[in-house]
Amino acid sequence: MKKLILLFIVNFAFTLKLLACSYTPISFCSTSESFSENLIVFGKIVSIDNDGIDFEIIDILKGQENKTIIRIWNGVDFDCNGNWSMAADELGELNETLVIILPKIVEKKNDWEVIGDYRRPDFFGFTPNLKVENGIISGLISGHVNYPYIEEQANYENFKNSWETSQNCSSVVLGTESYKLEKSFKIQTNSNNKFKISSNKKTEFKVSIFNINGLKIESSELIHKEFEIDLSEYSAGIYFINLTYENNKIQNFKIIKK
């Protein structure tokens, strides 16, 4: 009987650990709104040690910092490994360029921390960092992993400009080839309010339309040839189009109503 109780306790503890190390993150843009007081910077990892990393600031997107090289200490560990680790070096490798949301240390949580430096940002339920390579920023920028649209790549200059003009990344414009419509589909602007999607393939497709907050505002049944999007009733801004076809293949793109 004692063995059964012990086995139950061990299994229960193991299950709790698995649950603690699993999460569905919100996007970088949503994370930045949740932690609006934090520093947001673009820069490069210049050194790594057992307690954290040194990070060279290239651009400050939000907040203030006078130092060029800042210290990012390991966060509070929740006994998770790999991608779930709170080690600062899990953010990236030496010389890798990143955009990071950084909480400033105002109260020590670990012996190795220094007040005034920065802590490895909490990953549970959030996306606090994005990678930048060859002018392209990548990661879960906006949307949600469970939503029909997700922005995973953008031109860094567009991303930076969004912060400089709006102090957020709500107006990020995708700038890579992977986000263009497939050749089998084309989009045509009929007016400022009306857009037409047409297919030259003999396949049915569905269209769903979402606003900038991820709320579905329009949807269609199966379409054989073409579909007109009428945004006359909606305000100016960015809208996301979700195109589903051929056994649940998905094509996402955006349109801008001026």
Shape designation? elongated
Oligomer: single chain
How many domains? The number is 2
Low-confidence stretches: 2-22, 174-182
Helix content: 10-25%
Any guess at the CATH architecture of the largest domain? Beta Barrel
Overall average pLDDT = 76
- Figure out the total of helices: 3
Count of DSSP E strands? Answer: 15
Biggest sheet statistics: 8 strands, mixed
What is Rg? 22 Å
CATH topology of the largest domain: OB fold (Dihydrolipoamide Acetyltransferase, E2P)
Helix/strand-derived category reads mainly beta
Kindly report the spatial arrangement of strands forming the biggest sheet: 5-3-2-1-4-6-7-8
Protein described:
It is a single chain. The protein is mainly beta and 258 residues long. It folds into two domains: 105 residues, OB fold (Dihydrolipoamide Acetyltransferase, E2P), CATH 2.40.50; 78 residues, Immunoglobulin-like. Helix content is 14%, strand content 38%. It is built from three helices and 15 strands. The chain has an eight-stranded mixed beta sheet. It has a four-stranded antiparallel beta sheet with strand order 12-11-14-15, with no helix packed on it. The N terminus is likely disordered.
Provide the fold topology.
Layout: H1 2-20, H2 28-34, E1 39-49, E2 52-62, E3 69-73, E4 97-102, E5 118-119, E6 129-133, E7 136-143, E8 150-155, H3 156-166, E9 185-189, E10 194-199, E11 205-210, E12 216-219, E13 226-230, E14 237-245, E15 249-257
Parallel strand pairs: 3-5
Antiparallel strand pairs: 1-2, 1-4, 2-3, 4-6, 6-7, 7-8, 9-10, 10-13, 11-12, 11-14, 14-15
